[in-house]
Design a protein that fits this description.
By secondary structure, the protein is an alpha+beta fold. It has a single domain, classed as Alpha-Beta Plaits (2-Layer Sandwich). 23% of the residues lie in helices and 20% in strands. Bound molecules: iron/sulfur cluster (2 copies).
């Protein structure tokens, strides 16, 4: 059976040059457990201990919407990428 990583490897992206995921770094510094680093299936969020900030690899977002509800107090601004950009799903 394929792992999530194997399946994600098959997904195509057309990355935008601007992020569609806006985090509030002041709140991220204080955020208990930083759940986004665990629930995002595409591992978009990483806590950088040296820089003391969340790194957001928005180019790999599969637009599942989980961080829209999973971020405590909804501190993360979430929207779809601009038209034509982002994950390219095949239907049919
Ligand atoms: S869950 Fe929200 S507030 Fe917490 S680290 Fe992630 S983006 Fe920041
Ligand atoms: S929408 Fe889904 S894949 Fe994209 S950053 Fe949020 S949790 Fe990760």
């Amino acid at each position: 059976m394929s792992s999530i990583e194997d399946k994600l490897f098959l997904v195509k992206f057309k990355p935008d040059d601007r992020t569609h995921l806006i985090v509030d770094q002041d709140h991220c510094k204080e955020c208990k457990g930083r759940p986004c680093t665990m629930f995002c299936p595409a591992q978009v969020y990483h806590w950088d201990e040296t820089e003391q900030k969340i790194l957001v690899a928005y180019e790999g977002c599969i637009e599942c919407g989980s961080c829209r509800i999973g971020c405590p107090d909804l501190l993360l601004e979430w929207r779809y990428p601009r038209g034509g950009f982002g994950v390219q799903y095949k239907f049919g």
